[in-house]
Every structure is written in structure tokens, then in C-alpha cells.
Amino acid sequence: MTTLARRMDTIAPSATIEISRRAAEMRREGLDIISLSQGEPDFDTPPHIAHAGKRAIDEGQTRYTDVDGTLELKQAIVAKFERDNALHYATDQISVGTGGKQVIFNALFALIDPEDEVIIPAPYWVSYPDMVRLAGGTPVCLECDVSQGFKLTAEQLEAAITPKTKCLMLNSPANPTGAGYHREELAALGEVLKRYPQVFVISDDIYEYLAYDGWAFTTLAAVVPELFERVLTVNGVSKGYAMTGWRIGFGGGPKDLIRAMAKLQGQMTTNPSAISQAAAVEALNGPRDFLVEHLEIFRQRRDMCMAALNAIDGLSCRAPEGAFYLFISCQGLINRRTPAGEVLERDVDVARFLLDTANVAVVPGTAFGMAPWFRISFAAATERLGEACERIAQACSTLT
Ligand code: PLP
């Protein structure tokens, strides 16, 4: 048997990937599985962006680029931060990586020493705690209840900060809850952070363009300019631009951190794909009317799924301000019995029951640090979502 490094014991395989694997296996067995487990828009990359990628190949943009992004892409990102967020970065304050995931990973590796603490509001994106552990740090997960809109409060933050606190992870709108912070809420967190100069913030804004019901996206570095030098503002093209497979993410932050991230990336992956970078330039600089069209489709799907799922005895969910997820309480199903006689003790049992009985793949809240809940992604085709909700209702009606 191979003796693996001890660090491999500190992390778990991604729960979302595990569910998708099981769903794929069932699909291969011929079952009609509806997967609501993955956070990926079902739309194709808009044609003008895809063409920019093809053009890059034809023009021979197929070689290494600068490690942390081409100057052209960095300029497009600077312009994006100015236009959308009123954030003023220079190109040497920008880092481009293979997805927002790599940018966050680089940042944590560049920031965290052993025993440093990183505050992570829960429910959280599955990758944050494991990334912190891999970097040698300690994740400090703070439960943010539905009664507080799944959002970290200033009081909670202040109570959690210790001399070892190095970093705070913020994600708005959030995965898995869709919770979005209002300007005043960020300002209140900012007031606390101003008193603790050793705390750095990674603001993960990857779902920026997915905002509903008049909720206005805003980001910490813009709301609290005094913190500008202590924030890495992370974003990317995966979610908003339907470009998950192109693997381009980026961050804006202090020069010394950006340089350190480039040093790391230079020893790991070097530059993100040159072709994808060219496509990302077109995404950021080109026409963006499709964002409004996609958003309207997502809003309709959100409303449809919320109405259908809230009507099911035992389930309830709040309206998310953004992103494309519903985080659903299944407290009302706990301790109920399936027709096969199994008692649903945990959200993991509920997710397994829904996969086996309704053939619908969802992700248990346990994976995101809050139980008993589960997450669905409504970034799937509208008809399939409708059918999935019907199947979930049917399956739940068999519980006693
Ligand atoms: N941040 C959050 C909260 C996410 O949900 C994801 C993807 O699921 C990412 C970052 C990373 O996205 P990507 O690496 O595709 O840019």
C-alpha cells in the first residue's frame, strides 16, 4: 500500500463530487437521474466568447503567457473592477488563475502559517475548510443561522477573533445558501475589522451577477475603503459567463500578496490556459446583454422551485438574494420512515433517499457545515427542475 502524506488525512473528498459520481454510476445503470448537485449553469458559453477562444487558437496564442495572466486580460479585469465595483486596481494588483478556486488556494497558501486561524461563516462552500487545513491553518467555522439570513453578524465576528486570527472568508452571494450581504451589513463587519489590523479578508464574489429582487451586490473593499489593502477581491468568469470549463478566475489585492501568489502558481501550474485567457478578455470587454437574459431565467426557476418545495410537508426554504442555489431545511423529514422501513436520521439519509427513490441528486447540508438541510442548484434546465420537484414531492409523500 502507498504511504501517503499525513496531510491527505486532513481533507475529505468533495461531497458534491461524491454525489455526482454516484449519480453518474446510477445513470450508467440506465436510470433517469436528475442531478441538482452541481453548481454549473446549463447555458452554453455565449458564441462571441467561444469565438474569441477559437480565434486565439487560429492566431497561435497557444504558448505560455505571463504566470499570473496576460497584460490584456489584467487590463480587462482592472476595467471590470472599475465599472462594476468602483474598485481601483493597477494591473500589478491583479492575479489570474485556473478558476477562482486556484486564486483562493494561492491566497491561503501565501497567507497562512501553521496554527493561524481562518474564520469561515457556515454554511460555507465545501472547499474553504479543506483549503485552510491543507495550508496548515485551522478553520474556525461560525454557524450563521437562517434566522440571521445565513449571514455573519458583527457581534459574531468580534467574538471569534483571537490573536491567532489571520483571515476571514466572505462569500456573497453565497454558496450554498444564496445569502447576499447588504451594504450596511458589510459596513458593520468592516467596523470590527478596522479594529483588528492583523486580519486579512478574502471576499469571494464569484456569484456577483446573480442577484434577485432588487438586492444590490456590493463588495467589502468598496464599502469600507479603509480595508482596501487588506482585502483580496476574488471573482471569475465561471458562473456569470457560463464558462466553468474554461477555468479562469482572478483576484485584486495588495501587490505583495499578488507577487507571492504568482510565485506559488509559477511552481504549480504556471499560467492558466492562454486560449481561455483570450476568451475571458472578450467576456469582460464584450457585449453582456446575455447576463440579463440568464438572470431572468434563473429568477423564474428559483421562484418555481421555491413554490414547489415549500409546498412539501417537511421542507422549507428562504428566498435567496443571489447565486443559483436553494438551501432547504429538511428538519421536518427527520425521524420519518421510508416505505422500506428506513428511518431518516440525518440530512445525509434524506439525500440518499431522494437519490434512490426520486432519482434526484441533491447535496446534504452536512457537507456545507449545517444540518439537517440540503442544497439544490437551480442552474439546470427548467423542465428538468419542474420534474425534479414533482419527484421529490412524490417521494416525500411516501414517508410516514
Ligand atoms: N467560490 C465559490 C463560492 C464557488 O461555489 C465556486 C465554484 O463552485 C468557486 C469559488 C470556484 O469557481 P471556479 O474555480 O470555477 O472559478
TrEMBL record:
Family classification: Belongs to the class-I pyridoxal-phosphate-dependent aminotransferase family.
Stretch forming the signal peptide: none
Listed name of the protein: Aminotransferase
MF annotations from Gene Ontology: pyridoxal phosphate binding; transaminase activity
Gene3D superfamilies: Aspartate Aminotransferase, domain 1 (3.90.1150.10), Type I PLP-dependent aspartate aminotransferase-like (Major domain) (3.40.640.10)
Cofactor: pyridoxal 5'-phosphate
Protein's UniProt keywords contain Lipid biosynthesis: no
InterPro entries tied to this protein: Aminotransferase_I/II_large, AspAT/PAT-like, NHTrfase_class1_PyrdxlP-BS, PyrdxlP-dep_Trfase, PyrdxlP-dep_Trfase_major, PyrdxlP-dep_Trfase_small
Keyword annotations of the record: Aminotransferase, Pyridoxal phosphate, Transferase
